[in-house]
């Protein structure tokens, strides 16, 4: 009998999938729309340059492509010919001629690719736009690779296009997409001054924002009730630690689903996430585990055992302590106090072995919630058994 | 302008190949056409100029680049494209 996959449509987790709705970027979306609102009123009278910055996985590309889709509809409604063109400069090794050639092929698909300088191809691009009577926004993704390769002259040439075409309609506006503004430092003053006016900066996603993004993708990509809230929370936690990287979280979600399918599981368990993440980030470092004291190893074994035996994504310190007491009995050791164990837990957190956060506040005080985000519980347990056996010879 | 006789224009195999190629790919430059129909640049250029002077093809000049495509405004071009399409469809049956 063939096992049913947890996925309904895994293409919704593909890196190139453009979601219909973008979460927690409304302000930035509106700002972009404002910058380019002239396109719906007087497209020929001006052009605009906007810089979009943000760390990896903060949604720069998706924001711009979604904006491109929306503004194309808005401008089209006014009967104006318009195209949003998105080119990733790194794909063309930052070569301006190749980047511009890619833009030209949107209108002239068989335009020869070799033997033309950036200046020539820029002229061709402008001529084609004139022939087609079309206005464009050229979004140059990973623009820093172009600056690195071509330097000031290329940037200056791009940003002063309107001077080359005086007396004719302004047909090209730009969006420059890059991680930060540091790469602009290498540009000369005049190039810098033509660029740095309109900046849309995307802040890193927080854990809650990542949860919303992942929740949305779960609904689109997975069968109903195959991914629990706890699992989404765990992945959001991990992505949040990875500089708020939504792309990392979506990839981890997909990989966890693959692990679930490979094990013929009916749903994605937290253990699948741990297995998946351990393939992305090297985590279990035997030397680090070896450096732990006897009771530290036993406490960590208690954490591993708890997560192996339970399907929960989070455990309280009390639950881990119970497992630790049993392990102490197995190894005929006297168990340590709650305060000492709490200190050990802090050390594990610093080492990146577990994650802790303050959970609900009860009448007995705050409870510490423990998660084992990056190491498969089974693998950790096996490793600790070996080390404890050596220590107890 | 001296237009050629119908049989003169259509008696050339390279010209037929050029028309078939442009019907499929839309717009190409001279070198690319020459490479694809496997004849030299100068001869290809001659054939292209004949088809252009007959109003069947249109030349687009971008600096050093010359692109050719069917002349959408020409009745002759429309009829030839239709003929090629019908011919190709019949061949597939």
Outline:
Chain A has 393 residues and is α/β, with parallel strands linked by helices. Chain A has helices at residues 26-35, 38-41, 60-77, 96-104, 118-132, 143-159, 161-164, 189-195, 207-221, 229-241, 246-262, 270-280, 286-290, 294-309, 317-330, 338-351, 377-391, and strands at residues 49-54, 82-88, 135-141, 172-178, 198-202, 315-316, 355-362, 365-371. In chain A, the strands form 2 sheets. Chain A has a 5-stranded parallel beta sheet with strand order 2-3-4-1-5, with helices on both faces.
Question: How would you characterize this protein structure?
Answer:
The complex is a heterodimer of chains A (393) and B (93). Chain A has 393 residues and is an alpha/beta fold. Chain A has 17 helices and eight strands. Chain A has helices at residues 26-35, 38-41, 60-77, 96-104, 118-132, 143-159, 161-164, 189-195, 207-221, 229-241, 246-262, 270-280, 286-290, 294-309, 317-330, 338-351, 377-391; strands spanning 49-54, 82-88, 135-141, 172-178, 198-202, 315-316, 355-362, 365-371. In chain A, the strands form two sheets. Chain A has a five-stranded parallel β-sheet, with helices on both faces. In chain A, strands 6-8-7 form a three-stranded antiparallel β-sheet. In chain A, a hairpin with a 2-residue loop joins strand 7 (355-362) and strand 8. The mean pLDDT of chain A is 87. With 93 residues, chain B is of the alpha+beta class. Helices cover 61% and strands 16% of the residues of chain B. Chain B has a three-stranded antiparallel β-sheet.
């Amino acid at each position: 009998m063939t096992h049913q996959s947890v996925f309904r449509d895994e293409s919704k987790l593909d890196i190139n999938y453009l979601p219909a709705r973008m979460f927690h970027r409304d302000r930035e979306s509106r700002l972009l729309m404002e910058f380019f609102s002239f396109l719906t009123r007087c497209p020929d009278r001006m052009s605009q340059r906007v810089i979009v910055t943000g760390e990896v996985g903060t949604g720069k590309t998706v924001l711009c492509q979604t904006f491109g889709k929306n503004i194309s509809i808005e401008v089209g409604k006014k009967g104006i010919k318009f195209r949003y063109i998105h080119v990733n400069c790194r794909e063309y090794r930052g070569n301006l001629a190749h980047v511009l050639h890619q833009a030209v092929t949107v209108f002239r698909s068989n335009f020869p690719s070799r033997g033309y300088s950036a200046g020539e191809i820029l002229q061709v691009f402008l001529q084609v736009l004139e022939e087609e009577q079309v206005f464009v926004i050229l979004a140059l993704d990973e623009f820093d690779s172009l600056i690195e390769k071509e330097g000031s002259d290329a940037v200056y040439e791009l940003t002063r296009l309107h001077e080359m075409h005086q007396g004719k309609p302004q047909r090209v506006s730009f969006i420059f997409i890059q991680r930060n503004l540091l790469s602009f430092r290498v540009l000369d003053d005049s190039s810098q001054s033509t660029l740095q006016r309109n900046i849309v900066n995307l802040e890193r996603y927080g854990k809650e924002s990542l949860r919303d993004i992942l929740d949305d993708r779960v609904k689109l990509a997975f069968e109903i009730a195959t991914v629990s809230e706890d699992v989404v929370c765990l992945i959001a936690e991990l992505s949040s630690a990875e500089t708020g990287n939504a792309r990392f979280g979506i990839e981890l979600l997909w990989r966890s689903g693959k692990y679930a399918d490979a094990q013929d599981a009916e749903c994605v368990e937290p253990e699948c996430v741990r297995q998946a993440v351990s393939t992305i980030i090297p985590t279990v470092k035997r030397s680090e585990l070896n450096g732990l004291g006897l009771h530290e190893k036993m406490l960590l074994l208690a954490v591993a055992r708890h997560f192996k035996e339970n399907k929960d994504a989070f455990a309280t310190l009390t639950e881990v302590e119970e497992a630790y007491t049993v392990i102490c009995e197995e190894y005929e050791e006297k168990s340590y106090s709650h305060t000492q164990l709490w200190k050990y837990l802090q050390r594990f957190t610093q080492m990146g072995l577990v994650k802790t956060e303050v959970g609900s506040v009860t009448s007995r005080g705050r409870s510490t919630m423990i998660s084992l985000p990056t190491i498969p519980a089974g693998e950790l347990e096996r490793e600790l058994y070996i080390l404890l056996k050596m220590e107890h010879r | 302008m001296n237009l050629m006789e119908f049989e003169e224009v259509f008696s050339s195999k390279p010209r037929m190949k050029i028309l078939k190629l442009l019907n499929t790919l839309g717009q190409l430059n001279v070198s690319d056409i020459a490479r694809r129909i496997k004849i030299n640049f100068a001869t290809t250029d001659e054939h292209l100029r004949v088809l252009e002077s007959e109003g069947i093809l249109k030349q687009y000049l971008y600096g050093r680049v010359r692109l050719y495509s069917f002349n959408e405004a020409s009745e002759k071009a429309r009829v030839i494209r239709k003929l090629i399409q019908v011919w190709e469809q019949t061949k597939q049956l």
